[in-house]
Amino acid sequence: MLDRFSWGRKLAQVSRLFFFKHDVLRSGTLRGDPKTIMRLYDFFAPVYDLLFPRIQTYTATANHIVTTLVQPGDQILDLGAGTGLLTVKMAVKASHVVAMDLHQAMLRRARDKALELGLDGRVNYSQGNATVLPFRDAVFNLVTSSFMEVYLTVPEKTQMLEEIHRVLAPGGRLIFMTGNGEVSNRYIKRHQWTRILERSLFTDIEFTDHYDVFRVIFARKAGRGNVLEPSLNRSSRDEREGA
Ligand SMILES: C[S@@+](CC[C@H](N)C(=O)[O-])C[C@H]1O[C@@H](n2cnc3c(N)ncnc32)[C@H](O)[C@@H]1O
């Protein structure tokens, strides 16, 4: 039997391996190549929930998104939903969530979680690439994504943003949870996000950083239709202080 300390060490080893594989993937010309991402997640799908969802600040940032930015009645598309960390939290509050991911085993885990929580009637699943969305125009009023776009090059991110813009209703919102590009070169920087979001016709762009390392990006498709006005202005200091 492993004691708590040995489990902690094992977890740290697996996390280091994840980031090593991750960075090898990102440093090559293969970045964004779906086959490589599939191979990475063939390996990590069985242990994924022992990694990110165990990081307290990660789930706190996801909780912050759900509490302050998701509205009852939202029709949501969650891109790169993975094992459903954000999907199931949002499904408790919103009308409906479509969880989309490249990897079937990750989506299967999301489905199992939704079933366990009795949320299956509120979630649908779509296996595919976030850069080519198989949905009609203007059918969602919120598109979310956490730690998926990191696999895409800047032109691929732009392609995804144009697709998101197409499937959002006028006034619809985009919320990304990602890493802080000002403290880690794994992620692109604020000014780069602003440029590609504006180029893809998004407005009201806001950034909030949480626990220094996480970044929440908010943007809106111009137009009327989204009457509720969630704000990103609550600071991560408030969050730490439990305000
Ligand atoms: C780091 S995990 C994040 C999962 C989940 N959003 C979370 O926060 O726990 C990244 C997920 O993005 C998916 N992914 C990567 N590239 C994708 C793409 N182009 N289209 C759809 N999903 C993609 C992977 O299969 C993986 O499940």
Please explain how this structure is put together:
- This protein is α/β, with parallel strands linked by helices and 243 residues long.
- The protein folds into 2 domains: 4-49; 54-240, Vaccinia Virus protein VP39 (Rossmann fold).
- 41% of the residues lie in helices and 21% in strands.
- The protein has helices at residues 4-27, 34-44, 56-69, 85-93, 104-116, 154-167, 190-199, 236-240, and strands at 75-79, 96-101, 123-127, 140-146, 168-179, 202-210, 214-221.
- The protein has a 7-stranded mixed sheet, sandwiched between helices.
- Strand 1 (75-79), helix 4 and strand 2 (96-101) form a beta-alpha-beta unit.
- The chain starts with a helix and ends with a helix.
- The model is unreliable at 226-243 (pLDDT under 50).
Topology (SSEs and partners):
Elements: H1 4-27, H2 34-44, H3 56-69, E1 75-79, H4 85-93, E2 96-101, H5 104-116, E3 123-127, E4 140-146, H6 154-167, E5 168-179, H7 190-199, E6 202-210, E7 214-221, H8 236-240
Parallel strand pairs: 1-2, 1-4, 2-3, 4-5
Antiparallel strand pairs: 5-7, 6-7
Helix pairs in contact: 1-2, 3-4
The structure holds S-adenosylmethionine.
Question: In a few lines, what is going on in this structure?
Answer:
With 243 residues, the chain is an alpha/beta fold.
